[in-house]
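Hello Y.,

Per our agreement to keep a running log of every chain we model this quarter, I'm adding this entry. I've kept the format consistent with earlier entries: sequence first, then predicted structure.
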Amino acid sequence: MSARVRALVLCTALVLALLLTAALAPLPYSVAYPGMTANVLGADKGSPVITITGAGTRKTAGQLRMTSIVATGPDASVHLSDVLRAWWRTDEAAMPREAVYPVGNNTEEIAEHNARQMRQSQNTATAAALGRLGKSPKDIKVKLSLADVGGPSAGLMFALGIVDKLAGDGKGGDLTGGRIIAGTGTISAGGKVGAVGGVPLKTQAAHRDGATVFLVPKQECADAAAELPRGMRLIPVTTLDGAVGALKALNSGGHVPSCTK
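Predicted structure for the entry above:
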């Protein structure tokens, strides 16, 4: 064997070894999937998601579904093959681990952080909804209960659920118009809607559970539209007022905001 052939064989072996190492080495990614959805106007594990005392509530029709994603744990090994598979699938997404788990080094710390965020989200959703309706939190108490869900991304849907139960569309009808409406977005006490992660996977979860309309933070329109399930209508929102107005317009045949305009 000539020196040139030996060198070529050696280089090939090294390249193959590097490729094999890259394929087997764990990467700093998590793989995410469509998670559960829950109707905030309904019940979760036998208890109402929204309980209001101090004011009369309406019997609602239709659904307002919060959406979620699930992901491989912070200690799970994700390899190149997992990332490549997720790249090509619409029901998976490879995301930097720090984007999925920005705090905490173990499952317990992450769960505690997510629970705190959920409690804060519930508080701000209540403040935003009551503030929009001109009602005092001193007189009206709202309890939100949703097991096994963490993070702040259900804030918008919680706020809409409170508004629907207390006031509906203001004319005796439901905000949903009898539809299954899904969505995502953080909410501030002043009613501002904020961006969240994993929107394409959340639209997949919403479609799976029967939703035909999806409320998305406006700044994430492009992400949501890129892999939108067939038959799903996207409505961009920036505020709670805007979301309520869009749903009223949807029911009355008025102008409804679109991610494509």
